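The passage that follows is intended for readers who have already worked through the single-chain material. We present the inputs for a multi-component assembly, then the predicted structure in tokenized form, and finally a short commentary. You are encouraged to pause after the input and sketch how you expect the pieces to fit together before reading on.
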Amino acid sequence: MANAIPTPMGGFFTNWRQNIIYIGFVLIFVIFALTLSQKGFLNPTNLLNIIRQTAMIAVMAVAMTFVLASGEIDLSIGAVAGLATVTVAMAIAVAGPVAGVLAGIATGIAVGCFNGFLTTKVGIPSFLTTLAMMGIAKGVAMWISSTAAVPILSPNYSWLFGGGSIGPIPVLLFWMLVIGAIGHFVLRRTGFGRRVLATGGGETAARYSGIDTATIKFKVLVLSSTAAAIAGMLYAGRLQSGRFQLGEGDELSVIAAAVLGGTSLFGGKGTVVGTIVGALMIGLINNGLILMGLEFSQQLIARGAIIILAVALSQKKA
Amino acid sequence: MTSAVVMKGISKAFGGVKALDNVDFEVFPGEVHALLGGNGAGKSTILKVLNGVHKPDTGTIIVAGTPLTTHTPEASRAAGIAMNFQEMSLIPTLTVAQNIFLTREARTPRGFLDDPTCETKAAEIFAMLEVKVDPKAIVGTLGAGQKQLTEIAKAISQTSRVLILDEPSTALAVSDVERLFTFLRKLKAQGVAVIYVSHRMDEIARIADRATILRDGKHVITAPMADLPIDVMIEHIVGKRSKGLADVQRGDAARGEVLLEARNLSGAHKPHNVSFTLHRGEVLGLAGLLGSGRSALARVIAGVEPAVSGEIRIKGQPVAIRKPSDAISAGVALVPEARATQGIIPAHSVTSNMVLAVLNRISDKGMVDRQKAKTLTDDMIKRLSIKTASRDHAVSTLSGGNQQKVVIGKWLATDPDILVLDEPTAGIDIGSKSEIIRLVRDLAAQGKGIVMISSELSELLTACDRILVMADGRAHQMIDRATLDDLTEPDAGHRLQGAERQLQIEIQKALAFEPTQEVSHG
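Having made your guess, compare it with the prediction:
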């Protein structure tokens, strides 16, 4: 029966557009491995460095997958991460690492509630809400830190949040894998994940089916800010300080990672696994371009071109 | 016996327009209750009140003896009411099984979603209906019929006391409808109350036990089917609604040359092999139910969905219409059905909207000549007697009827020979409706050829010289409007009413034709 009906999981290569991210990732990896092995691309230290540089983007991108899948967007994440580095560092200085962690999480939840309230209750599109929040979060971070770096003098905190490693494996890899796994599971296998996908896939239909779409959007925006705060805590731990500049501009890499991974900007579609691979691919490209000895200006151009190519290839032909 | 549903004195108004006026509606357990009425009679509204999408302004709802106090989809579902939404409740990006069990997913012992079980249960429902739908298919990739089956499966997968099926059969094959009926009879035997909405009288006569007929938001009659032969049903549905339209002078069409000729025209899905001619000075109506292919035919002619086979000739010359601009340069203008999204830019001024299709003509070196734009707009406002505070007011400030005139004006500005109007009176108050119809007659008299689609038969009958009856994408019959009039009837209103009944009967006849057509086509 149903011989002509395409199934979502159909053959890997017959649905190559859907899986372009995985094919592209392998392809770019192989090309770099062949051309840059002299420059140490395959060196384990270099590969682990890619992980270190990608982890924060990946953590935020996992939450961004939910945001985009619900049909919303969050542009404030980079600034929220920066704000969180400052609140964490200041709280640690005053009351120790535990207070620091709580302060970081509280920062994320507070910003998320604000974004969610404005978007779902006041009715300002999330694009505008979070665009404005981007400036507010950055301003607050600059203000409370007097634009100076706040040092973190707790080695335990720094080890756990991004600085440490177990043997050769950086702790950041565990953060990325754990948050990725939880995100994947929640999106695929829980009622909440299904409601997120339904909300973005067809809001009216979702409402008619008895889904409270406003609450779903609210939760998703809180999730996103909280993930951004966690990413900020990782930045702070890795660099042993809080500075408002950390995370600046990350929202673009994060959205690119999710879209590269097959998440639709129009909502309803998204996979966390794809997003993580998308984030790794961006890290891979950055690393390879640096090893190639390109100037920063050339890196920007090459990175933009590769992302456009990948996204263009993954689009369905009309 | 406790009634499954008792609705008493339900009224509901939308922005001053009364959609429901003090309506009573009662359904017993174990019956199939047909809900009938023309367009705008209030069927959809009363169903949406019952399932919690709309909150009634006044009135009470009692479900199985318990009053319904809150009016939300969740509350209605908790009370045991399930409904299909004519594709409105499907998420295109999820699979069939995920859609059917949305918010009621099967869970693993640990509380996580269990898609395989949902897929098995969905497959069981489809097996019971004896239809083939892949539970794993993404809904967005399915055709209309499969989507409709998914909607139906979603409604019946809920253990419910009251099952509402709103036009479940529009996109279904005849054999699928038969299986649906077998299933409904089983539900009846279990004591479920089924509310069945359809425009197809033959179906109603076969499945329903009782029927309630609404007209203009008011309750007309509730009776057992035995007391409602098809002609009586039609009489109650039509009523004396045609008043106001009856005084539009149709006059005699001065038929000129052939402007448009369609030869064996077929679209990708619909229409099938349709041929007709349209003369200068003539209004040709397309009649049929939802899904009959009227709008599809209009889109083919206007190049929105190009024909896959057949030929379009304009003034005797074959023309290739592959995209809308081809149609426009061939002198065909389509006034689409969805006025707000396809016809106007609501926030822009009357002038901006009016000149949108002719920007090139009134521009000089890329600059729009504002004087020409003003002149053109003022001419159209006068010609179509558009009521607007000024040409600079946003179109959104105009009434529905005047907005429609702006759309028509916008296309008239391109000076087309052929005007295709898809539901030009949808969502317009009665007074403006006859004004639009009069405008259509005037345009024909000025030498345009007009193709008009309307679900309101009285309007078609008032506006058109000939009517093409369509069903399932095929043209069934070309009726000369004049032959539908009973000339012995002196009263114009009664005469129009009689003609409407005649046309209804022809449309229903065309439906009954389908099975044999299927075979010859297959």
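Commentary: The mean pLDDT of chain A is 90. The beta strands of chain A are 150-151, 165-166, 169-170, 241-242. How closely did your sketch match?
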